[in-house]
Amino acid sequence: MNILIIDDQKFIRETLKADIHRYLAEDEIHIYEASNGNQGIELLMALDVSLDLVIIDLKMEQGDGIAVINMLATTPRWLTVPIAVISSSDKRTLELVDCIIHTLRLNLVGVFAKPVNASDILTPLLATEAEANTALDIQANRRHRHTNINVQQLLKDEQLILCYQPKINLTTQEIMGFEVLSRLCDRHHGYIYPDAFLPLINQQGLNSVFTRMVISQALQCWVRQPLLAQFSLSINITADDLTCDELIEYIIESSRNHDGVKLILELTESQEIINQDRVLNSIARLIINNIDISLDDFGKSYSTYDRLDAIPFKEIKIDKSFVSDMDINHQHYLIVESTIALAQKMHVKVVAEGVETAAIAGILSALGCDVAQGYLYSPPIEGRYLIDWIGQYQSELVHGQ
Amino acid sequence: MICTPISYPSKTSAQTFSNFLKHTRTENQLSQEDLCCLLRQKSCLFDSLDAITISRWERGVNIPSLAKQAEIVEIFGAELFDIYREDKTFIHEGLALINLFESSIERSEHPYYRNKPYRVEFIDSQDDNFMTLLQLSLVYESNPRLSLANRQLSQPFFCGLSLVVAFSFGEQIVGHSLFCRTQAKVALEFMNDEVDLFEVIGHHSQSIPDTLMVFSSFGVTPHIENYMMSVYLHKMALSRSIKYLSFSICDETLKRKLTQFKLPLFKIRTLDNYHKPIKNYSFFASRTEVMANRNLLKLSVIPSAKSQTIDPIFFMQLGTSI
C-alpha cells in the first residue's frame, strides 16, 4: 500500500505514520511525506508508483491543501486516487472543502477534523475497497432498472398523475399559485419520479408529447374547479420544448381557450446547446400571449446570468439546494441573499424553493423574498386532494395558526 | 387516445380491484356506461375513459395502476388498503413477500438465529422493561440523534414512542422497530436538526397527528426485517388521519431497502458521531405514495396484534404454495 502524507507539522506526520503501521500490521506499506503543498505537488508529479491514499492538511504555507486538490483534479492519473483531508479549521470550512472536492468529482474518503486517528481514515477507505465490487453491481442494476421503464408505453396508457405544490406569499401567507409536479405510475412500484423518467423521455424524443399531456391534464384540473381560477398554474418547460413550434402553438391555443387560468412556464436549466434565436422567438410569442416565463433552479447552472440578461423573466426561482440549509450553511445564505437583492433591483419576483422549516421562512422574509415554496407549507398534493388542502390551509390562516 | 392500462402479471391482484368495481357498480345501480361518466366527471385522470375499458377492468383482462385504482376507490369513500386487506389471497401474497423479498445485497446470516419462530411484542412505555429493551435495541444503531446515553431520562419522557421488539427462543432480541406519531411540521424540523427526538415525542399539539415517523427498523434476517416494517405500515394504514410516512435513519441497510422499494430519498445530511461523519437519510412519502406502492401495500395488509408468535417456516410454506 502506498500512502502520501502532506502536512507541515512533523509531529502529525509521525503520529499518522505510526498509527498506519499499527493498523495495517501485515501489509507492505510505503509512506511518502511532504511538508507543504508545493513539495507535495512536486512529489506527485515525479512519483512513478500509484498511490492508495493521499492525506492532505489544509492550512500550510508554501502551497495549501486546496492547491494540492486542484492539482489532483487537473491531472488525469490522479483523478481517482482516494483523498483524506485533515484540518483544524472550523466545521463550515470543512463542509465547504467537502463540497469543493465533490464538485471536482474526486475520490474523497472524508474530511476529518484534527486530532485524527489513522483508523478514522483507514476504516472507510478499506470499507470502500471491499464495497467497490458490490457498488458496481448495484450501479449496473440501477441502470438496468431505469432503462426498464417503458416511458413510451406509460405515456400511451396515460399513466401520468400530476401533483401540485403551493407557492405562498411570505408577507400575507396567502396562496399565490401552484407548481405542477409530474409522476408516472407503473404496475410494479407505484410512483416514478421526474429524476428517473425525464432523462428517458428526452432520450426518446418524447418531451413535447409529455409536456403537452402535462399541460392538458393541469388545465383540466383548473377548469373543473372554479375555486382554482384565482391561483396561478406553473408548469415546467425545457429549452428543448421551446424549439418545438407545434408545442408553442398548442400552449398558446390552450391558454386562449382557458382564459381564466393564469399560466406560468418555468424554464428549467438544460445543458444542451440550444438554438438561441428559436428559443427567444418562442419566449417572445408566449409573453405576447400573456403567459409569464419564470427562471427555474436559479444558480444551479453557469448559463443562468446569460439567460437572465436575454430573457424578460417575470420571476426567478432560487434552487432548493441553496435554500433548505441556508440557516446553517453561510455560503448558501450569501447566495440566496444576493439573488434576492439582484431580483429586487431588476424588479423581478423571487420565489424560494425548498422551504422546510419556519426558521428558513423567517430568514427569507427578513431578506425581502416574495414567495416561498416547500414542505413547510405542503409536500406535492395529488389533484384530488387539492380543494380540501386549500380549504384547510385557508381556515388555519384565518384562525391564526 | 384509448385508455388501455397495463395488466398485472398475477391474476390474483387483478381480482381484488375487479371485484370491488363490479360490487360497487351493482350496489350503486350503475351501468358500465354510468360508471364511466361518473369517473370522467369526478376526476381529470379519466378524461378519455370508455365503457369498454371498464368492462375489461371488471373482467380482470387488464386493470389500471395502483395510483389510478386509488383515485377510483376514493371516489367511493374507501381506500386501497380497505379493499386489499379484505382479500385473503392478497394477504397471502403479502405474507409470501415477507419471506421471498430477499435484499439483493448478501447479508451474513445471524450466528445464533436460524428461522426459528419468534414472538413480536409492542412494548408499552410504562412497561418495567421498556428502558432496558429500548437501550438494547439501539445498541448497534450508530445514529447520534438516537443517543440516549448521556441523558438522565425517566420513562414518562418516552410516552408516545412506539417500540416493537421481536424475541426468539431464550428472549434473544432478533428485531425491533421504533416509531411515533407526530405533526409533519415537527417531523421536518427533526429532519433539519432543529428539534431533537424528545421534542418530537413530547410534542403535544392540539392538532391530530398526521405523520408517522420511523427512527429505527431492523431484523436479523430479511424475514424479520420485512415483518417489522409491516408492523408500522399496518398501523399507518389503519388510521386515516396519518397522511405522511417519514423516516429519519442512519442505517444503510434500511436506506437501501427503502430505495429498493422505490421510495424517493428526501434529504441526506452529514452528522457528527463522536467526531466521525455519518450520513443521515430522510424519507417523506404521502399516504398515496405508500399505498400505490405494491410492496408497501402488500406489507401493510398483514395484521399485527399486541403480542403474537410468527413461524418463518410456516410463512415459507405459504410462499411456495402460491
What do these coordinates show?
Chain A: InterPro entries: CheY-like_superfamily, Cyclic-di-GMP_PDE-like, EAL_dom, EAL_sf, Sig_transdc_resp-reg_receiver. Chain A: This is Cyclic diguanylate phosphodiesterase domain protein. The complex is a heterodimer of chains A (401) and B (322). Chain A has helices at residues 10-23, 37-46, 65-74, 91-103, 118-147, 151-156, 194-203, 207-224, 245-257, 276-288, 304-310, 320-323, 330-345, 358-367, 386-398, and strands spanning 2-6, 30-34, 53-57, 83-87, 108-113, 160-169, 175-186, 190-192, 232-238, 263-268, 292-298, 315-318, 349-352, 371-373, 381-382. Chain A has 401 residues and is α/β, with parallel strands linked by helices. In chain A, strands 6-7-9-10-11-12-13-14 form an eight-stranded mixed β-barrel, surrounded by four helices. Chain B folds into two domains: 11-78; 115-321, Aminopeptidase (3-Layer(aba) Sandwich), CATH 3.40.630.30. In chain B, β6 (265-273) and β7 form a beta hairpin. Chain B is globular and about 65 Å long. The chains are: A alpha/beta (401), B alpha+beta (322). The A-B interface holds A 95, 98, 110-111, 113, 120, 134, 138, 141, 153, 156-159, 161, 183, 185-193, 217, 220-221, 224, 324-325, 328, 356-359, 375-376, 379-380, 382-384 and B 1, 3-8, 43-45, 47-48, 65-68, 71, 74, 104-105, 184-185, 188-189, 191-194, 244, 261-262, 264, 267, 270, 275-277, 284, 286, 288-289, 292-296.
List the helices and strands and how they pair.
The complex is a heterodimer of chains A (about 400) and B (about 325).
Chain A (H helix, E strand, L loop, with lengths): L1 E5 L3 H14 L6 E5 L2 H10 L6 E5 L7 H10 L8 E5 L3 H13 L4 E6 L4 H30 L3 H6 L3 E10 L5 E12 L3 E3 L1 H10 L3 H18 L7 E7 L6 H13 L5 E6 L7 H13 L3 E7 L5 H7 L4 E4 L1 H4 L6 H16 L3 E4 L5 H10 L3 E3 L7 E2 L3 H13 L3
Parallel strand pairs in A: 1-2, 1-3, 3-4, 4-5, 7-9, 9-10, 10-11, 11-12, 12-13, 13-14
Antiparallel strand pairs in A: 6-7, 6-14, 6-15, 7-8
Helix pairs in contact in A: 2-3, 8-9
Chain B lengths: L10 H17 L4 H11 L8 H9 L6 H10 L4 H6 L2 H13 L17 E6 L6 H8 L23 E8 L3 E11 L1 H8 L5 H5 L9 E9 L2 H17 L5 E6 L2 H9 L4 E9 L2 E11 H5 L2 H7 L6 E4 L1 H10 L1
Parallel strand pairs in B: 4-5
Antiparallel strand pairs in B: 1-2, 1-8, 2-3, 3-4, 5-7, 6-7
InterPro entries (chain B): Cro/C1-type_HTH, Lambda_DNA-bd_dom_sf
Protein name (chain B): Helix-turn-helix domain-containing protein
Organism (chain B): Shewanella decolorationis
